[in-house]
Each structure stands twice: as structure tokens, then as C-alpha cells.
Amino acid sequence: MKNKGLVFVISGPSGSGKGTVVDELRKICTDVGVSVSATTRKPREGEVDGVNYHYMTREQFEKLLAEGEILEHTEYNGNYYGTLKREARKIIDSGKDLILEIEVDGGSQVRNLMGDDCVLIMLLAPTAAEQERRLRDRNTDTEEAIAGRLAKAKIEVAMAPQYDYIVLNETGKTLECANDILHIINASHYTVSRMRTVTDHYFD
Question: Is residue 74 part of a domain?
């Protein structure tokens, strides 16, 4: 009965552990696709083009944006981040579910385009203090950048009511968190609206 996959947006403030949880989710659920986002920021040490992000110039990104080839995007700290439509389309049309690890404002863009075929999941650290500790332990940002991320987190958490689910990423429990998201993915395929093809033709 499953022809096309669903889109699962996983968002959350910096320090919520999105990348680590999505990596764990991919280990325990191989029947999902993950779209590699595009960005205009410089690669960090150890990051690989086409694996962590599609790195491109601002001019290249804006050209794709003007051509309608970006599913969602945001601008943060002077850099663009976005999802390429061609990558998303390839995964969904194959019948796999698509996992989008994106910013909160990008989630609302995808919901507007995809409607009920999009499920929004917000990932949070257990407390704001734990989120800040994780940011500082990275040793990748200046104090100014950390302050900016913490300020943005307040705005992002305020948008939680727009999401379908909230999942807490407890420290040291990445696998449990990934399993919580997997339960959401599995259950989402059995909502009444998505099973109407069964009920509508049950007695045919």
C-alpha cells in the first residue's frame, strides 16, 4: 500500500544532539533516507563535502533558490542552509521515508509544502543548562556565537506547539532517543487519514 514515503522533520536548538540521534536512527532503521543539506558556510575540520553538507558559494545557493530548487532554507550567522528538492524527491519517490535534520523555521516551510505528508519532531536537551553545557563542550564556537545560539534556542522552543511531537534527548541515552523517534515513524503510517485506502474499499 505504501507508494511514497513520508517526510519526518527533526529540528531542535543547537546542543539538542540532532546529528548524533539521526546517525543512531540510521543504524537501527535502514529503510529511511537522509537528505544531505546544502550550506554556504565553510566546512569544519573533518567534515566532507556531500557527506556532512553540500558546500557551495552564496551565489550558487541563491541561483538554486531563484530556480525553485530549494525545498526549505534558512539563513543563520550570515550563511544559508537548505534542502535540495532533487534529493528529497529521489528518496520519497523510492518509497523510503525522508529524514530532514533542519532548523525549526525550515520545518514550517516543509509543512506548508507537504501538508499531512510531513511529520514534525522537535528534539530537545533535557534542560536548558544541559544544552548550554553541550555547546561549550564542543569548543568550536566563540562566546558571541554561543550567546547567539542560546538566544535563538528560546525562540525555537517557543515554536514547539507548531510541532507534532517533542522528544527529549537525555544525556547518554542516544539509542533510547533514536528508538523513540522510530516508534513515531512507524506509528505515523497507521493514522486514520493514511489508512483511508483500506477503509474506503474494505467491503469492495
Answer: no
Dihedral of CA 121/127/130/136: which sign? positive
Give domain status of residue 47, yes or no.
Answer: no
Half-sphere exposure of 103 (CA within 13 A, CB side): 22
CB 101 within 8 A of CB 34: yes
Q: Is residue 91 part of a domain?
A: no
Q: Can you give the CATH number for the domain in which 133 is found?
A: 3.40.50.300
pLDDT in tens, 151-197: 999 999 999 999 999 999 999 999 999 999 999 999 998 988 888 87
Considering the entire predicted model, what is its pTM?
A: 0.83
What total number of domains does the chain contain?
1
**CB neighbour class for 141 (10 Å; exposed up to 12, middle 13-18, buried from 19):** middle
Contacts of 110 (CB under 8 A, 6+ apart): 7, 9, 71, 72, 83, 100, 102, 118
**From CA 122, how far away is CA 150, in angstroms rounded?**
16
**Residue pointed to by grid coordinates 534542502:** 83
Determine, yes or no, domain membership for 75.
no
Q: Give the domain extent around 168.
A: 7-35+96-200
Taking Cα atoms as reference points, which of 26, 51, 29 lies closest to residue 38? 51
